[in-house]
Amino acid sequence: MWTTDSPWDCQGCPKCHTTYAGHPDGHKELQPHTWGTMYNQNTGKPYQRCTKCSQVDEESYKASGKKDGKAKVYDKPTQLAPDPEPIVPTSTPVPLPVDLDDALRILYDQLESELEAIYKLSEDQFLGQAHHGLGRFLRNEWGLWSGSDIQKWFKERGIHHADDMSSIILTSFHRKLFNKDIDLDGQIKHYIKYWNIHNPDVNKGLV
What we know:
The chain has 9 helices and 2 strands; from the N terminus they run ββααααααααα. It is mainly alpha-helical and 207 residues long.
């Protein structure tokens, strides 16, 4: 398999147990996945997904899909609610951002009451708990599926999938809160690389 970008050190061939390589000299032993917690949007139960290569742990995902008849339970105060309304009120108009800087400024203003809880979450925890609530709100209300200014801004930089756009916004927001480099170029390369492997049509804007 030939790729212009090297794969993650946890991403490789299940038969020979080495990383995918464009050249034999690059063949390396597989390393363990770096698991992060995500939440099943149908049951609210957690499952594991690698924060590097995005591979989902099948056993935990299967377990997360089993309904037990109980209402979804989310820890407080460090867990964000899955419903976007308490986080970004839809009863009042929310400005639509034109680029990432604008998005982070608007998010900070809208999430002021949630900052104390967010500061208690690691980046992986925040992304896992915000993806299906706040993330869905961003994808729908900010037009990440439907030709908004910020969608065009992302597409100009090679990001065409709304899930990737919302993840970059949320990742950058958390890193900004902790005065970390948002590494926008690195985030963009991660998603382009992922789709080059799994479905190149996404990077062409065809999906």
